[in-house]
Amino acid sequence: MAGGVLIVAEHLERRIAPSTLELIAAARPLSRALGDERNARIAVLGHGVREIASHLAGYTLDVLLLDHPALAEYTGDGYVQALRGTVESTKPRVILVAHTSQGYDFAPALAGTMDLPLVTNCLAVDLEGDRLVATRRLLNEKVQAQVEIRSDRPIVVTMRPGAVKAMGPARGMMTVTEVPVTLDPSSIRETFVRLERPQVQDIDLSTADIIVSAGRGIQKKENLALVEEFAKAIGGVVGASRPLTDMDWLPKTRQVGQSGKTVRPKLYVACGISGAMQHVAGMKDAGLIVAINTDPTAPIFEVAHVGFIADALKLLPATLKELKA
Description:
Rossmann fold, alpha/beta, about 25% strand, about 325 residues, single chain, 16 strands, 9 helices
């Protein structure tokens, strides 16, 4: 299947990362552009991870299992060494990697080691003839650009998490092929010590169905209590724009936007948020967007399905009163 799409799966503690399912969805149109939707494979690296490989085979993708004791824990050097042989043997047209801390660690190294073209943090990617066309944001998210790459070498692409809707439940079963791994453990420069999770557990905005986000329009930290009360009343959780998390009014885990969380809730209520492109990039795909802002020219109204030119500090109490009536 030379010339197809090779996806590099990401997993942690026997769980498949949501970004991997997004890559599978992104690979479908690429494969169709190459003439066959099945013209894609997914590489699973690790040790003792056949169960993960078998699960991914259910997404009607052939799975390449790269099993080696030195891959039991992630290291950039280990991934680059292991993938190099697979890329040379399969000769994919495109290599898809999630633009996560892990993906952005090894993808540039893989491209550099093999002298391959690299385009990072993409929102979309397609093939038009002999050109790969990648959509990405530039100039601090202020400009959306399409980048064309012409190459007869495999092109490494990192996709921004949340840019593509994740692939749905497994719908078939393909093969799992164990691939010989050429790897020198002594040449791996990193050493895995331990996995540490944050001590403070907070809400995962990416899984919330309803999000009520606050911006500078709420004026002072004390007014967050009103936003929290409203969010609770409608069964939602509180998010924030970057200025509020920069001021430590809310933790960084609550930040929505390009440098925070990308979310797709059923309902997103923006309270006093102007709608800078960086913020909009993280919430524009919500099912229903409601914007509340005193400025009728605020950019947030360009993406909102429902807009209120009003002060959130007055509209929220009035709405709460109606909800409690």
